[in-house]
Amino acid sequence: MPRTVSGEFDIRREAELAVERLVQEYNIDRSTIEVMAASDENTAGVVPSGADRDTKTGEPGSSPTRGRIRVSVTVDDAVADRAQEALRQARGV
Predict the structure, then answer these.
(1) Dihedral over alpha carbons 14, 91, 70, 47 (to 10 degrees)
(2) How far apart are CA 83 and CA 76, in angstroms?
(3) Which of 1, 40, 48, 66 is deepest in the core (most CB within 10 A)?
(4) Who contacts 45 (Cβ-Cβ below 8 Å, separation ≥6)?
């Protein structure tokens, strides 16, 4: 029976790594993974990092950092616990 697992991330890069892990290690089809703001506001995470920072000053850029990022995927029960652990290990809560 299919089950939806999800994790929320403070940093966009952590969410991206979680998706990468689900696809590469668990052979989950990328098109079945949803990445979205965890709230109603558009966001790039809570903590600016990488592309979210100004390249010259290192200061937070103009990316909206007002909320967390949710990664969700619906998988078979056989994979659900491992997929949930992959999200946890990518620093999701």
Answers:
(1) -60
(2) 10
(3) 48
(4) 9, 10, 11, 12, 14, 15, 52, 65, 67, 68, 69
Q: What is the pLDDT of residues 28-47, one digit of tens each?
A: 999 999 998 887 776 655 56
How many angstroms separate the CA atoms of 19 and 61, rounded? 24
Q: What is the pLDDT of residues 9-33, one digit of tens each?
A: 988 888 999 999 999 998 999 999 9
Q: Could you tell me the two tokens for 73?
A: 């995927």
Structure pTM? 0.73
Instruction: List, in order of start, the domains of the chain with CATH numbers.
Output: 2-53+63-89 (3.30.70)
